[in-house]
Write a structure and sequence with these properties.
Layout: H1 2-17, H2 26-44, H3 48-63, H4 68-73, E1 77-83, E2 88-92, E3 95-98, H5 106-119, E4 130-134, E5 140-144, E6 154-158, H6 167-172, H7 178-190, E7 194-198, H8 204-212, E8 221-225, E9 238-242, H9 256-263, E10 270-273, H10 280-288, E11 296-300, H11 304-318, H12 323-333, E12 336-342, E13 348-360, E14 363-374, E15 384-388, H13 396-401, H14 405-410
Parallel strand pairs: 7-11, 7-12, 8-9, 8-10, 10-11
Antiparallel strand pairs: 1-2, 1-6, 2-3, 4-5, 5-6, 12-13, 13-14, 14-15
Length: 413
């Protein structure tokens, strides 16, 4: 503890020497850090390695995200969870570990929180204690402050790879088969409306990003998200929209629903909504039903069947409509459902690819095209893969796009 206090003292002395009234470059900060850390190392007879660690710790605390920076820079870490200043956990290869380091104080944790929120122009305080944000590398952040978080401010960071996973990567990882991926490529190119479902951490955003790579480069794409996460860098005609929270200065909030309505006036060929959580599901369905073929979105659910029920509930959150009318909108708007899951060995896989076939006696009809079937084995790893269990019925869009599915089915598609 005494060492931490001494390092805090170094940090305060460096900050006192810096002229914070003007922009200070990282090089100037690091020069002072080296000077003070060198003096500290000589006084305490520290090794070069110990001195280097102190320099890094000081720089991270002043210009980065303090103790979290080490986890941010570790590409094998996929999620970071902060439960107050004293408890930090991280996920690596699907398993949770406790991080041995901690924040020096609650105040330091609050400084990091304000730094994260400020980067994407978000406000988080006692009046607005919950906020979604993102880091410079695109990682998704959720922040909850005291007193809502009883044991201290909580931060959840979902990291994304610097190079987004492509469908070939997901195939190599066993998330789906080449046969299923080829069918999805045809469906995306042909303009089928696709909805991806799954639980928390099942890989919905990663899969949506990979699926979006199949969209032809010449098409105009509008993405709509709470916090921008999708990485469609190879699409030249791309517009990225992000929601905005209200703040104490009277700035009005801009919700997903507002952005979907705006997107309809921006001549979109594809609309991609990062996630439907509430009443915006109605606007998404209306977009799908008004000529914006090839739209994509995701939602939380335990299965394809549950996702259809959740969509009904989400629409009812925004407007009172007869259930029959809502089901009609869903059946005519969404063509394909893809359900992802996280299995007991922590791997993420496509569990179901299904086609919505219409409405019969007031019930939405759908059929499975692919289903994950597990193969018994002695290994702790789940064995098995997607098996074709049905063939696509609605082929008009494929035909208009020039794809011959009949020929593909003879080859195994």
């Amino acid at each position: 503890m005494r060492k931490e206090e001494e390092i805090d003292g170094l940090r305060r002395r460096i900050l006192e020497e810096l002229d914070l009234t003007k922009g200070v470059e990282d090089e100037e900060v690091y020069r002072l850090i080296e000077e003070y850390a060198g003096r500290f190392a000589r006084e305490h007879f520290l090794t070069l390695k110990e001195r280097s660690e102190i320099e890094q710790q000081l720089f991270h605390s002043m210009r980065k995200l303090d103790v979290l920076q080490e986890l941010i820079e570790d590409e094998t870490v996929t999620e970071i969870m902060v439960n107050g200043a004293d408890h930090i956990f991280y996920e690596k290869q699907g398993r949770l570990y406790e991080f041995p380091k901690r924040f020096s104080s609650k105040e330091k944790l609050e400084d990091v929180i304000q730094q994260i929120a400020g980067f994407c122009n978000r406000v988080v305080n006692e009046a607005s204690p919950i906020v979604d944000a993102r880091l410079a590398d695109g990682s998704r952040v959720n922040i909850v402050l005291e007193p809502v978080a009883l044991d201290g401010a909580a931060i959840s960071i979902r990291k994304f790879p610097k190079n987004p996973l492509e469908m070939t990567d997901l195939i190599a990882m066993g998330a789906l088969t080449e046969e299923a991926a080829e069918l999805l490529r045809i469906l995306v190119c042909s303009g089928y409306n696709i909805f991806i479902s799954g639980g928390t951490g099942s890989g919905k955003t990663t899969f949506l990003n990979a699926l979006s790579q199949y969209i032809p480069r010449e098409e105009r794409i509008i993405t709509i998200e709470d916090a921008a996460e999708l990485q469609l860098w190879d699409k030249p005609n791309l517009v990225r929209l992000e929601t905005r929270n209200a703040n104490m200065e009277g700035v009005a909030p801009i919700a997903i629903r507002d952005l979907i309505r705006t997107a309809l006036r921006m001549r979109p060929e594809r609309i991609i909504v990062g996630e439907c959580r509430g009443a915006e599901a109605l606007d998404m369905l209306q977009a799908m039903n008004t000529g914006h073929d090839g739209s994509l979105s995701t939602g939380h659910a335990n299965s394809c069947k549950d996702m259809l029920s959740r969509l009904e509930t989400m629409v009812l959150m925004g407007v009172e409509l007869p259930l029959q009318a809502i089901r009609s909108q869903i059946a005519s708007g969404i063509d394909i459902l893809i359900h992802l899951g996280r299995l007991r060995d922590k791997t993420r896989k496509v569990l179901t690819i299904a086609e919505i076939t219409g409405l019969l006696e007031g019930e939405i009809q759908w059929q499975e095209l692919f289903r994950f079937e597990e193969v018994p084995g002695e290994s702790d790893c789940v064995q098995g893969g997607l098996v074709r269990v049905g063939t696509l019925r609605a082929r008009e869009k494929c035909c208009r796009a020039g794809f011959d599915l009949a020929e593909g089915e003879r080859d195994g598609l």
